[in-house]
Predict the structure of DMT family transporter.
Amino acid sequence: MSLADLAKLVFVSAIWGSAFIFLRVAVPEMGMWLTSILRASLASVALVTFTTLAGLPMQWRRNFRHFAIIGFFGNVVPFVTFSFAALHIPAAHSAVLNSTVPLFGALLSVVFLAERLTMRMLLGLLLGIAGVAILVGAGSLLLNAAILMAVAVCLLGAMAVALASIIVKKTGNGGGIHPIVMAAGSLALGSAAMLPALPFSLPAAMPSSVAWTCTVAVALVSTGLAQAMFISLILKIGPTRAMSATFLLPLFSMLWGILFLREAVGAATLIGAMVVLAAMGLVLTAPRPQRVVSVVEAEIKA
C-alpha cells in the first residue's frame, strides 16, 4: 500500500468516525428515518452535481442494478441501523461494532466467493465475537432490550457494509464504473427507497440548528466524501484492505466523543476495542484463500 493510499485510508477513517458523533446529536431530534433519508439525499445531490460538472456519465439505465444493490446494502441498511443505535448506545460503542466489517467481509467471502475458511481466520472471527461480548457485557451500559437490539442492528449494518464492499469490487472493475459515479448512484437510489417513510418520520417539533448542522455534516462529509474515497480505495487496493479503514473508527470516534460530546470511555470499552482490533489483525494477516467459484460475480454478470 502506497503512502498516499495509507493517508487516504486514515482520512476516510477520521471523517467516517465523525458520523457516529453527528448521529448522536441529530437523531434524537430528527428521528432515525428522517436523518437517514436526509443523509442519503443530501449526499446524493452533492455527488450527482459533482459528476455532472465533472462530465462523468451516470448511465442510469446501464448501472441501475448495480446502484440499487449497493444502495440497499451499502446505504439503506447501515444508515437506518446505526441511526437507531445512536438513540441507545454511545458513539464509541457504535464505532467498535462497526469495526467488525472486515470480520463479516472474511466470512461472506467464504459464503459468496467460495473461499476456504482458514484456522487463522476462524480464530479471528471467534476473537471478534469475544470482543463484542466484552464491549457489551462488561461495559458501563445498563443492559436492556433496547441496548441489545441496538447492538444487534449495528452488527447487521456492519454485515451489510461488508457485503456491499465485496459487490463493489466486482461491479466496479467489471463494469468500469467510476467510484464517484458508483457512490452517487447508490446514494440516489438508496434515498429513493427510503422516501416512502418520509411522511411518517417528520419530528413533532422543529429540530435545532445544531441538529440540522450535524445532519448536513454527516451527509456531505461523513457520507458523500467518505463513500467516494472509500469506493476508490476498494477498487485500487481491494475490499479487504479498504475495509481495514474501520479499524481506526473506534479510535477517532472515541476522540471525537471525548472532545465534542464529553462521552466517558471506560476500561471495558477500551479492552473490547483492543480485542476486536486484534481479531481484525488475525483476519487481515491470514493467507489469502484461493477462490474456487465467484457466486457474486456470476450473479452480477447474469
